[in-house]
Amino acid sequence: MKVLSAEDVRQAVPMPAAVDAVRNAFRELAAGNFVLPPRQIFGNGAVLVMSAYHSPSGTAVVKKIGIALDRVPAIRATVIWTGDGEQLVADGTSITTLRTGAVVGVATGLLAPAGATRLTVIGTGAQAPDQVRAVLAVRPIAEVTVTGRSAGRAAALAGDLAEEFPEVKFTPSTDIDASIADTHVLCCATSSSTPLFTADALPENVHVNAIGAFRPTMRELPRELLGSATTVLVDQREAALEESGEIIDAVESGVLAESDLVELGPALADPPLATGRTVFKSVGIGPQDWAIAAALAEH
Q1: N or C: which end of the chain has fewer CB within 10 A?
Q2: Burial readout 18-49 (b: 16 or more C-beta within 10 A, e: otherwise)
């Protein structure tokens, strides 16, 4: 049995490889090659158990997640992968941030302007760095604004990322409206229960990723953005309608129909409109964890 630490995960699967692996997993999902049991939720979302079985390879992944938003890191997880007589146990916290970044890379590659050079990330927690790494892996980003409630945390994260990507200009900010006013790509990675901005604060042409709100009571995006977006992309329609506060609110209020939601897997074969304001909302599904675990098993 392989036991892999967070450092092992990072060394084995860099972000560009993670984006490729997750993209392929969504193609497999669209082809009907995964069995996905319903996610189990305990303690009002404090504990989650996710699993996925890949029929062609006979491999499976199970992830147990503990979530406490008042703790750093807020998410702690363990991933178990099995296949062909082999078992792998890996740090699930690093896999979660990596695969969440990777799916944003897939969606950004599909919907963001090809020449996008400006990125804004809202949030300075554990998910934020991989959001930046993923977008930089698929677009020629030259400027990144790191926006958070704490000036100190925003500055610290901007400094760390500047060391990792010296060719990119990183600017810390606490002013959301100013930081998103002329951005090409926006990543939201917070635990907010209310929208972070108004739709009017966004440029007319922008791609927005939102990964922070994972409960029906949480919302990062304004209803008006979802109602007016050219394309609203989700990782899986069923999961979004059960867990995404933004999607649930938009559908219940009537500004968005369930049929308006475009699933990522089919969109890779039949790309949706990528003009104006586009949105990708992810709550995370098992094939993403399987993709990273399978890559680790092959390493």
Answers
A1: N
A2: bbbbbbbbbbbbbeeebebeebebeeebeebe
| Domain range annotation of the chain | 2-96+287-298, 102-285
**Neighbouring-strand partners of residue 80:** 62, 89
Expressed in angstroms, the distance from the first to the final Cα of the chain is: 14
- Check residue 58 and report its DSSP letter: T
Residues in contact with 234: Cβ distance below 8 Å, sequence separation at least 6, in sequence order: 240, 244, 247, 261, 262, 263, 264, 280, 281, 282, 283
pLDDT of residue 62: 97
- CA–CA separation, 39 vs 181, rounded Å? 37
Find out whether 31 and 296 touch, Cβ atoms under 8 Å: no
Q: Considering the entire predicted model, what is its pTM?
A: 0.95
Q: What is the mean pLDDT of residues 27-46?
A: 91
No. of helices (H) and no. of strands (E), the chain? 11, 15
- Using one digit for the tens of pLDDT, what is the confidence trace for 133-157? 999 999 999 999 999 999 999 999 9
Compute the radius of gyration of the chain from its Cα atoms. Answer: 18
22 close to 282: Cβ distance less than 8 angstroms: no
Give SS3 for 38: coil
- What is the third-level CATH fold of 2-96+287-298? ornithine cyclodeaminase, domain 1 (3.30.1780)
To the nearest 10°, the Cα dihedral for 205, 207, 213, 216? 70
CA 44 to the chain's CA centroid: 22
DSSP conformational letter for 210: E
Q: What fold is seen in the domain 102-285?
A: Rossmann fold (3.40.50)
Q: Which residues contact 185 (CB under 8 A, 6 or more apart)?
A: 108, 112, 116, 118, 119, 120, 135, 139, 141, 206, 207, 208, 209
